[in-house]
Amino acid sequence: MKDISIGIIGGTGGMGRWLADLLQKGGYQVIVLGRKTKMPLDELTSSCAVVVVSVPIAATADVIKQVGPLMPAKSLLMDLTSLKKEPVELMLANSQAEVIGCHPLFGPNMENPAGQNIVLCQARGNKWYDWLKKLWLANGLQVLETSPERHDAIMAIVQALNHLNTITLGLALAETAIPLNEIKKYSTPIFQTKEAIVKKIFTESPLLYKDIIIRNPDVGKILDIYDKALADIRRAIQSRNSDEFKDLLEKTAKILF
Ligand SMILES: NC(=O)c1ccc[n+]([C@@H]2O[C@H](COP(=O)([O-])OP(=O)(O)OC[C@H]3O[C@@H](n4cnc5c(N)ncnc54)[C@H](OP(=O)(O)O)[C@@H]3O)[C@@H](O)[C@H]2O)c1
Fold it and tell me: What is the pTM of this model?
């Protein structure tokens, strides 16, 4: 299998570059495309048995619609998008190729991915699926096999809810009358950790986080849950019964842990 060439559309950027490095270290031929690369897509698809789409979420649909029809049935079309339902449906609808939806649950700075989680959604065909699963396992990754719908429902929690929570903290910090630099002088270890996460989300890839949240099909449910949680907390804090807040925490701890 190592004599195959793998094309990565978006291979000049974060996750695409990460995958290109991993494949090249494994002895594969890799061709990377960015927006400025001159190679036409039909040249890429005729040289590569596998094409990976790893472009920003907002550009993914258009790229799949362009490359999908050029892929032969015996080839593999796959993606690394952080959402799975729409890209997998589009890859199936726009190509005859084998199709796999893939989502690494970590960022591109992960030099050694051993022990990290990666999601696979098998959509069409077995041959390339076996190859890809073995590739991840050989690199020490934990492979999670699920449907695109289940993936997106869980990512609504692991990513959308999680990042919404961080963004809420960032907005609230910006609303206080005290500048962050002054607040930070009084940091506790937990505050330091959370402030670093807020900084990462607001400054590193705001576009990625925005799309991970607003394009998740289950984000409406998550907003309702978030609103209810805040309303429950407000009610418990404002209640004249001083036990209500403690009861809310204890009841929730029993559900969670
Ligand atoms: N970053 C993460 O933590 C992470 C984790 C897991 C999955 N993902 C997924 O990985 C994918 C790529 O994200 P990323 O963070 O790696 O993005 P990125 O660092 O911004 O890289 C994007 C890549 O796509 C190319 N590109 C940008 N706009 C394009 C367009 N309109 N048409 C074609 N190519 C375009 C860029 O090429 P040039 O800039 O060279 O033109 C670059 O190679 C996304 O689907 C994201 O959901 C990201």
Answer: 0.96
